[in-house]
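User: Before I run my own analysis I want an independent prediction to cross-check against. Here's the chain; please return only the structure tokens and, at the end, one sentence I can use as a sanity check.
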Amino acid sequence: MKYIKIKRVMDFIFSLILLIVISPIMLCAAVAIKCGGQGPVLFKQERPGKDGVIFTIYKFRTMRLETEKDGHPLSDMERMTRVGMMLRKLSIDELPQLLNILRGNMSFIGPRPLLIQYLERYTPEQMRRHDVTPGISGWAQINGRNGIDWETRFEYDLWYVKNISFLTDLKIFLGTLAVILGTRGVNQSKSQTMEEFGVATKSLKG
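Assistant: Structure tokens:
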């Protein structure tokens, strides 16, 4: 598709420009994370991209390294740092993914790249979300972010795959700005940022 090729060129140009323009913000975020406690500035994790190809995603670290206290596992929200909470509300934690866009692993707009272990849990239809390059924001993100269930999220992702176009991407971009300003749906619940797919919602495994 001609637009896909044009989209890649636009992704490269705009990610390079943004990395230069917002580098002071990223530097401030990195300093705040370092001052907030021990641990690396960046959170790195392998995720499946287009056609299921695995790549390393980059985000600013928003949680403490400790996963349990007094023998009890800590929830995502208990591990979240004060700096991390602010970064997530403003979506600043996502900025390092501009590096992923520059490298071609990701796009500005597309289905969010999820965990590798989810690959074996998808139905054949849900697997189609990997027909396109994953993005920082997508149709699901402007229609509920982390506040929607998995089934609805996948329906939104598949709608995007079938309707990808410049106008669709523009609509998602403008909707993303509104979501960031509203800070709605940042976390799925008071204890978790997002429930694991295939555990709390086993009926979706197909």
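Sanity check: The first helix runs from residue 2 to 21.
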